[in-house]
Each structure stands twice: as C-alpha cells, then as structure tokens.
TrEMBL record:
The keyword Transport belongs to this UniProt entry's keyword annotation: no
PANTHER family: 4-AMINOBENZOATE SYNTHASE (PTHR40279:SF3), PQQC-LIKE PROTEIN (PTHR40279)
Keyword Oxidoreductase applies: yes
Enzyme class: oxidoreductase
Domain Thiaminase-2/PQQC: 15-225
Record keywords: Oxidoreductase, PQQ biosynthesis
Catalytic reaction equation(s): 6-(2-amino-2-carboxyethyl)-7,8-dioxo-1,2,3,4,7,8-hexahydroquinoline-2,4-dicarboxylate + 3 O2 = pyrroloquinoline quinone + 2 H2O2 + 2 H2O + H(+)
Gene3D superfamilies: Heme oxygenase-like (1.20.910.10)
An MF annotation (GO) of this entry: pyrroloquinoline-quinone synthase activity
Name recorded for this polypeptide: Pyrroloquinoline-quinone synthase
Family: Belongs to the PqqC family.
Pfam families assigned: TENA_THI-4 (PF03070)
Length: 250
C-alpha cells in the first residue's frame, strides 16, 4: 500500500524547505569552493561570469512570466520590484548593469557577455527550463522555486569576502552586484516564504512546493557541473562555447 503524504505543520514544512537548501544548494558545489577560495584561474572566473550572465538575464523574464499569470494586483505590485531590481531604471542602474560591470572588471567585453554568445549548452538548457517551469506550473510552485534565495545571502557574503581577498579585479565597484543583492534578497524571500507557507495548505501542495524548490536547486547545480566539466576538469569545451582568449575587452 502506498502511503498518503501527511500535511506538515507550518514550522515543520518551513524546516523541510530549509533542509532542501542545506542538502542541495549550490554553495556546496566544488566550483564555488574553488571560486571563493581563490583557486580559480582568471579564465575560469571569466567562464563563470559569462555563463552566470545567462541566468541573470533570464531572471526578470521569468518574473515577467510569473506576473503575466498573476490576477492579484497586490501580488503583482510586490513581485514587480524584482524586475526593477534587475533591469534598473533610467536613473538607477540595475543588477544586469552591475553584472556587466563585473564582466568588464574581469577583462571581458561587455557586449560579448551581453550577447550570451559563448554560453555553454547545458547552462542554456538549465536556465530555459527554469523560465519554462515558472511559466507553466502553478503560481505556488513558481513562487516556491524562487526560494533558493533563502540561501543566497550566505553565499553572497562568502563570495564578497573571497573575491576581495583573493582576486586583483575585485573591489567595491566591481563586486557591487553582490552587495546590492544582500539588500534586495531579504525582502523578496520574506515575501516568497510567507506566500508559500500560507498557500501550501494541503499535503499535496506542500509536496509540490518542496519539489519546485528541489527542481531549482538542480537548475543551479547543473549550471556549475557544466562549467566545471568545460573549464576545470576534464576541460571538454563544447563546440561553440566560449574559449579563453575570446570576447576580451579591448
Ligand atoms: O549568486 C548566487 O548564488 C545566487 C543564487 C540565486 C538563487 O539561489 O537562485 C539567485 C541569485 N544569486 C541572484 O543574484 C538573484 O538575483 C536571484 C534571483 C533568483 C530567483 O530565483 O528569482 N535567484 C537568484
């Protein structure tokens, strides 16, 4: 006989979500260990910046996909600040602009990075699957998939310290993307977590929300696996992907 899932209390369900991060979040990936401890070569840092740009550039598109399906104006108003954080405004640069500043600081041509031309195929597939997930699944699952951000401030703090300590390109200006996220992410995630805890009010919905968060940890992990295999070991760069020496700043 198959066991019926049991509805967890709010506290236990939150603890279950947090455990998913403790076990599966990409802060544990060996590529991040290398990056944060100063073991990446300049080209490995460049490969990371190029590939991660693909993720950054699609975040506002997935948030727009979420908004387009959202009937509640209050939810839309709160969620749209995420798009503003990344896209900025005429007066205020956003996260994408700050990422391109980081790209220039590591020696890359910003137009090359913004073209997403050299992105690894697996990065593209992973990011596209995240956007599609948010477009197609329930609003609860879409919002639950953003909850990896619960775990992001810890990795951003570690990254800021690691980059500043180990890499010549790192200074307050070039790493401003991560400082800003430390201000922006807590409000996003507080809202997202409350929404998920309030709306996952059956065992089935709790299962679906936990699965959505697990799926998202897989998206992030898969991107770093691809990066590691192409640019660390065994160093199999797929056809068409960025090769060291290309896309450099004049
Ligand atoms: O550097 C990181 O490790 C990291 C992870 C994540 C994440 O957990 O999805 C995000 C970010 N950064 C980030 O900067 C960001 O803006 C962001 C938005 C989202 C999302 O799913 O809506 N995740 C993340």
């Amino acid at each position: 006989m198959t066991q019926q899932p049991v509805r967890l209390s709010r506290e236990d369900f939150e603890a279950r979500l947090r455990r998913i991060g403790e076990e599966r979040y990409h802060d544990k990936h060996p590529f991040h260990h290398r990056l944060h401890s100063g073991q990446c070569t300049p080209d490995q840092v460049r490969a990371w910046v190029i590939n991660r740009y693909m993720y950054q550039s699609r975040i506002p598109m997935k948030d727009a996909a979420l908004l387009s399906r959202c009937e509640d104006p209050t939810l839309r108003r709160i969620w749209r600040s995420r798009i503003e954080d990344h896209d900025g405004s005429a007066e205020r640069p956003g996260g994408i602009e700050r990422w391109l500043k980081l790209a220039a600081a590591v020696g890359l041509d910003r137009d090359y990075v913004a073209s997403a031309g050299g992105v690894l195929p697996a990065t593209r597939f992973a990011v596209e699957s995240y956007v599609r997930f948010v477009r197609e699944r329930s609003l609860l699952e879409a919002i639950a998939s953003s909850l990896t951000e619960l775990f992001a401030p810890k990795i951003h703090t570690k990254r800021i310290a690691g980059l500043l300590e180990h890499y010549d390109f790192a200074n307050e200006d070039s790493i401003s993307y991560f400082r800003n996220r430390l201000d922006e992410a807590p409000k996003d995630v507080a809202f997202g977590l409350t929404y998920v805890l309030d709306h996952a009010n059956t065992a089935e919905k709790q299962e679906a929300a936990a699965a959505a968060l697990t799926f998202k940890t897989d998206v992030l992990w898969a991107m770093l696996d691809a990066l590691y295999s192409a640019y660390v070991e065994p160093g199999h760069i797929p056809p068409g992907a960025w090769r060291p020496g290309k896309g450099l700043r004049a």
